[in-house]
Amino acid sequence: MSEPTAEPMVEVRDLVRTYRTGRVEVPALRGASLTVAPAEFVAITGRSGAGKTTLLNLIGGLDAPDGGTVRVGGRDVGALPEDYLLALRRDVIGFVFQSHGLLPVLSAAENVEVPLRLTRTPPAERDERVRVLLGLVGLADHAAQRPHELSGGQRQRVAVARALANRPRLLLADEPTGQLDSETAAALMPLLRAIVASEGVTVVVATHDRTLLGEADRVLHLEDGAITEVPAAAGDAPPVS
């Protein structure tokens, strides 16, 4: 007898999202579908304006679709009341954006600590979690530094640590290397791969950077509002810009 298949961490079916500006309708997603398994690392590529950010926002419950369904951890995101949706974003999903969004008056450790304070994590447990996460992203020696004292790559690593603070099951990263130089960017994706291994987190990342796609278990291409899987051979990858 075969073992039962684990429930998908993310399941998107026939997703439709259209933006309206005055009388003009701009379709972002036209029946997009995808499934992501627990602890899988999936990269989504596609030209600018293809709808990658829209897709991540819908998966993360930051936006609502015009049609189709999004399920995260078996829960229909679109059917959740607002308080449950807030809990989903706080406890189940971590977000990393192109701009790190750190609080400038707080140190690296204090920025990572913010989500733990919001959940009233006991101080000793909070301090230990911050210590572990800064170590994970290679910034144990920079805990007391404020964002302006860190490089762009270091700030983005702090943002990754902060996103992991409450032990999310799903990490959504939207162009996390978009503002980094190529060398710094190349170091971030192996970090995300290490996080999948050490924390068991499912990662869905939108990226333009071809050099980073090799870290993913699968690469999906978003074009004309629909998603296709990219063949494993790098030479078969469609253009991303």
Automatic annotation (TrEMBL):
This protein's species is: Actinomadura algeriensis
Looking at the record, the residues that make up the ABC transporter domain are 10-240
Parts forming coiled coils = none
The protein's matches in SMART domains, at most eight in alphabetical order, are given as: AAA
Does tRNA processing appear among the keywords?
no
Transmembrane segments in this chain: where? none
Which InterPro entries does the UniProt record give?
A: AAA+_ATPase (IPR003593), ABC_transporter-like_ATP-bd (IPR003439), ABC_transporter-like_CS (IPR017871), ABC_transpr_LolD-like (IPR015854), MacB-like_ATP-bd (IPR017911), P-loop_NTPase (IPR027417)
Q: Which residues form the signal peptide?
A: none
- Entries under PANTHER family matching the protein: ABC TRANSPORTER RELATED, IMPORT ATP-BINDING PROTEIN
GO MF, one term, reads: ATP binding
Q: What is this protein called?
A: ABC transport system ATP-binding protein
Listed A to Z, the keywords are: ATP-binding, Nucleotide-binding, Transport
Highest rank taxon of the organism:
Bacteria
